[in-house]
């Protein structure tokens, strides 16, 4: 079950990274794209060691099994911020000169 969960998690992360990268490339102006991508990657990859540290501290404090359940619940709830956003319903990208660009 752990293998299946990790595999599906990795597939989900890859799909999310591809979608986020495509939207960023399409919507961020060329002049600031490098700065925005640098900030995005710094925040994205910078929080991973903090999460590992928090998981280790929590696992030491309350035990491994409760920590894994907290992590599972956190991962499941992490997508809730997307539900009210327009991203799930987006089918076209906004164009720069009033034209729409198909997503797919």
Short description:
By secondary structure, the protein is mainly α. The chain is 67% helix and 6% strand.
Written account of the structure:
- The chain has 104 residues and is mainly alpha-helical.
- It has a domain at 20-73 and 91-104.
- The chain is built from three helices and two strands.
- A two-stranded antiparallel ribbon has the order 1-2.
- A hairpin with a 5-residue loop joins strand 1 (92-94) and strand 2.
- The chain is elongated, with a radius of gyration of 18 Å.
- The mean pLDDT is 84.
**Classification by helices and strands:** mainly alpha
Indicate the multimeric state.
single chain
- Tell me the overall shape: elongated
| Main sheet properties | 2 strands, antiparallel
**SSE string:** HHHEE
Number of helical stretches of at least 4 residues: 3
Q: CA-to-CA gap between the ends?
A: 33 Å
Please specify the SSE layout and strand pairing.
Elements: H1 2-27, H2 33-62, H3 64-77, E1 92-94, E2 100-102
Antiparallel strand pairs: 1-2
Tags for this model:
mainly alpha, 104 residues, two-stranded antiparallel ribbon, 67% helix, 6% strand, single chain
């Amino acid at each position: 079950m752990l293998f299946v969960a990790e595999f599906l998690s990795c597939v989900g992360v890859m799909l999310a990274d591809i979608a986020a990268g495509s939207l960023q490339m399409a919507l961020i102006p060329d002049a600031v794209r490098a700065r925005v991508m640098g900030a995005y990657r710094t925040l994205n990859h910078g929080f991973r060691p903090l999460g590992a540290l928090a998981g280790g501290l929590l696992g030491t404090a309350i035990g491994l099994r409760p920590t894994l359940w907290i992590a599972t619940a956190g991962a499941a709830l992490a997508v809730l911020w997307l539900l009210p956003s327009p991203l799930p319903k987006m089918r076209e990208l906004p164009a720069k000169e009033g034209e729409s660009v198909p997503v797919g």
